[in-house]
Automatic annotation (TrEMBL):
<dbReference type="InterPro" id="IPR032387">
    <property type="entry name" value="ACAS_N"/>
</dbReference>
<dbReference type="Pfam" id="PF16177">
    <property type="entry name" value="ACAS_N"/>
</dbReference>
<dbReference type="GO" id="GO:0003987">
    <property type="term" value="F:acetate-CoA ligase activity"/>
</dbReference>
<dbReference type="Pfam" id="PF13193">
    <property type="entry name" value="AMP-binding_C"/>
</dbReference>
<feature type="domain" description="AMP-dependent synthetase/ligase">
    <location>
        <begin position="70"/>
        <end position="462"/>
    </location>
</feature>
<feature type="domain" description="Acetyl-coenzyme A synthetase N-terminal">
    <location>
        <begin position="12"/>
        <end position="68"/>
    </location>
</feature>
<dbReference type="InterPro" id="IPR045851">
    <property type="entry name" value="AMP-bd_C_sf"/>
</dbReference>
<dbReference type="GO" id="GO:0019427">
    <property type="term" value="P:acetyl-CoA biosynthetic process from acetate"/>
</dbReference>
<dbReference type="InterPro" id="IPR000873">
    <property type="entry name" value="AMP-dep_synth/lig_dom"/>
</dbReference>
<dbReference type="InterPro" id="IPR020845">
    <property type="entry name" value="AMP-binding_CS"/>
</dbReference>
<dbReference type="Pfam" id="PF00501">
    <property type="entry name" value="AMP-binding"/>
</dbReference>
<keyword id="KW-0007">Acetylation</keyword>
<keyword id="KW-0067">ATP-binding</keyword>
<comment type="similarity">
    <text>Belongs to the ATP-dependent AMP-binding enzyme family.</text>
</comment>
<protein>
    <recommendedName>
        <fullName>Acetate--CoA ligase</fullName>
        <ecNumber>6.2.1.1</ecNumber>
    </recommendedName>
</protein>
<dbReference type="InterPro" id="IPR025110">
    <property type="entry name" value="AMP-bd_C"/>
</dbReference>
<dbReference type="InterPro" id="IPR042099">
    <property type="entry name" value="ANL_N_sf"/>
</dbReference>
Length: 635
């Protein structure tokens, strides 16, 4: 009996049961039958739940890139691995076969080695969505270096925090990047970010925009001349199952981002398995995920999950609105995309455009649609279903997180009956539970609670880089013995899950996970600002927008308020990145606080979302007099 492919709903339930009753057998068999290993593992898993030390496939030896590329060469060498669609419609798309990808990754791996990068070194990658980004990630994994991709929309300060935290020895960037009508000067931003960091020995620069850049003698190198002369083959490094594969930073409820550490074997097995089943993968498919490789969605499904299955995966450099809002439909038509995986925020923005942008494109190649990043509202779900899928493509609403590594709750295309706004059922191996405030498991259906997972899974993050204590605190302390997701959920009468949203100080804006703390840190840098609190509110396009309540210092109250607002958003852009800009700013007399001095965010959230009925208990407030003023002047 093989467990890799789930054929129908009955089989799903069978596999699910097996995965709970005999997890060793279940995952062991999948690992054995579908991947290549240098050496088999000793135990399928080994957990020390006192220390939260989680190991899968102990002492197994492998290389994930050998599984992504080398093993496909004999059968699918000429098959397209990557299709690159540039930002500019006049630039030709690139089709990179598995054979060519092998050579390009091998050459890049040899360049990295020639520049002193060794197994275990950290390499930060700050590149636009060009093939070199995928190639650099794979080259790192091939030689055992730990990649940490930083989304190319992040500011210099955000880069600095990340490079410093992981102690990167190298940064890979480009002169610039194209995004819609704009070019972004990435190399300049990196120069600014790392000027005081001693760990960075080399900066490798890819040429993309022909922007003029400064090259620092002894530190900065153009990639091209090194790549030209690099050997075309490379022996993949032998890695242990639990060797770190990458670090990816995500926001937390305190200012500092968390460097989530993913390891090799478990991540490989579960991203491959979920890619195959959630998207009902077939050999001739053309898979397109519109995320950026700088996020976990890109890591797991544009890159690793797709290549592990020998699939053809599309990488798009640009934005949905450029040169006009039909770009996504153009790309689907042009490359005959079969699976289209995108975010509710993109759907909501495209559905406001004229209908003529979508008609006139042949979307008949599509078989399956996917949604990720935030709850998909009913209206967007139906528009996606009616206008994109023409009511013949199942929509998989996939719930997961940077921390989970792979999709944990989702319909399986052509297996699980879908229901609008429901992520439906947990994947085999995922023991989801709902918990009440007293930390007891809520059994039965038609219930609501905090979404937790009560048994480890192969692709879960193993730790926070340099801060295991924070890992334990953040994920395992609220509900002892369980991983707490930070999300609330309800379970309907048949056991389907619907995610209701974050229960902590993280706001999902346009599908991006934004901690309010680092935004507040940036606002508080403004000389006129005394204090600030940022909360989320419902936004038609972005899902959530950011609403800042700000008190000014006495000397600040005489300044031009519109100007201060502008300056605050500039500060956020430079300290965090433009995705953290506030949509609404309200200057207030005072922020509502408890006797112990904690800002009552719940109350501000109720005001921001216009739900004055959900105030809850205000008896612990020390300054109830400020509330009416905030309500009267709300935006
Ligand atoms: C948070 C994780 C993993 C993909 C990208 C985001 C929210 C994610 C869904 C969904 C409702 C969702 C959750 C989660 N989220 N997918 N299908 N339905 N909410 O990764 O940045 O780590 O954010 O995104 O709130 O906790 P992330």
């Amino acid at each position: 009996m093989s467990y890799y492919k789930i054929g129908d709903l009955e089989q799903y339930f069978k596999h699910y049961k097996k995965s709970v009753r005999e997890p060793r057998k279940f995952w062991g068999k999948i690992a054995e039958e579908n991947f290549v290993w240098y050496q088999a593992w000793d135990k399928v898993f080994d957990f020390d739940m006192e220390k939260h030390d989680i190991k899968w496939f102990t002492d197994g030896k492998l290389n994930i890139v050998k599984n992504c590329i080398d093993r496909h060469l004999s059968k699918r060498g000429e098959k397209a691995a990557l299709i690159f669609e540039p930002n500019d419609i006049n630039e030709q798309a690139q089709v990179i076969s598995y054979n060519e990808l092998y050579v390009r990754v091998a050459k890049m791996a040899n360049v990295l080695k020639s520049q002193g990068i060794e197994k275990g070194d950290r390499v930060c990658i700050y590149l636009p969505m060009i093939p070199e980004l995928a190639i650099a990630m794979l080259a790192c994994a091939r030689i055992g270096a730990i990649h940490s991709v930083i989304f190319a929309g992040f500011s210099a300060e955000a880069i600095k925090t990340r490079v410093e935290d992981c102690g990167a020895k190298m940064v890979i960037t480009s002169d610039g990047g194209f995004r819609g009508a704009k070019t972004i000067q990435l190399k300049n931003i990196v120069d600014d970010a790392i000027k005081d960091l001693s760990s960075v020995e080399k900066v490798l620069v890819v040429k993309r925009t022909n922007e003029a850049v400064q090259m620092k003698e002894g530190r900065d190198l153009w990639l091209a001349p090194l790549y030209e002369v690099a050997e075309e083959s490379n022996v993949a490094q032998i890695m242990d199952s639990e060797d770190p594969l990458f670090i990816l930073y995500t926001s937390g409820s305190t200012g500092k981002p968390k460097g989530m550490v993913h390891t090799t074997a478990g991540y490989m097995i579960q991203t491959a398995y979920t890619f195959n089943n959630v998207f009902d993968y077939k050999d001739d498919d053309i898979f397109w995920c519109t995320a950026d490789l700088g996020w976990i969605t890109g890591h797991s499904y544009i890159l690793y999950g797709a290549l592990l299955n020998g699939a053809t995966t599309v990488m798009f450099e640009g934005v949905p609105s450029y040169p006009n809002p039909s770009r996504f439909w153009d790309i689907i038509d042009k490359h005959k995309v079969t699976q289209f995986y995108t975010a509710p925020t993109a759907i909501r923005s495209l559905m406001t455009e004229d209908y003529s942008y979508i008609t006139g494109h042949d979307l008949s190649s599509l078989r399956i649609l996917g949604s990720v990043g935030e709850p998909i509202n009913e209206e967007a779900w139906h528009w996606f279903n009616d206008f994109v899928g023409k009511k013949r493509c199942p929509i998989v609403d996939t719930w997961w997180q940077t921390e989970t590594g792979s999709i944990l709750i989702s319909p399986l295309a052509n297996v699980t009956p879908t229901k609008p706004t429901y992520a439906t059922l947990p994947m085999p191996g995922i023991q989801t539970v709902l918990m009440d405030e007293l930390h007891n498991e809520i059994t039965g259906n038609q219930v609501m609670g905090s979404l937790c997972i009560k048994f480890p899974w192969p692709s879960m993050a193993r730790t926070i880089w340099n801060d295991h204590e924070r890992y334990v605190q953040t994920y395992f302390s609220d509900f002892p013995g369980c991983y707490f997701t930070g999300d609330g959920a309800l379970r309907d009468e048949v056991g389907y899950y619907r995610i209701t949203g974050r229960t902590d100080d993280v706001v999902i804006v346009s599908g991006h996970n934004i901690g309010t703390a680092p935004i507040e840190d940036a606002i508080n840098q403004h000389p006129a600002v005394a204090e600030s609190a940022v909360v989320g509110y419902n936004h038609d396009i972005k899902g959530n927008g950011l609403y800042g309540f700000i008190t000014l210092k006495v000397e600040g109250t005489t300044r031009d308020r519109e100007n201060v607002k502008k300056e605050i958003n500039q500060l956020i852009t430079s300290h965090y990145g433009p995705i953290g800009k506030l949509d609404k700013i309200q200057f207030v007399e005072g922020l509502p606080k408890t006797r112990s001095g904690k800002i009552l965010r719940r109350l501000l959230r109720s005001i921001a979302t216009n739900r004055l009925d959900t105030f809850g208990d205000t008896s612990t407030m020390i300054n109830p007099e400020v509330v009416q003023g905030i309500i009267d002047e709300r935006q």
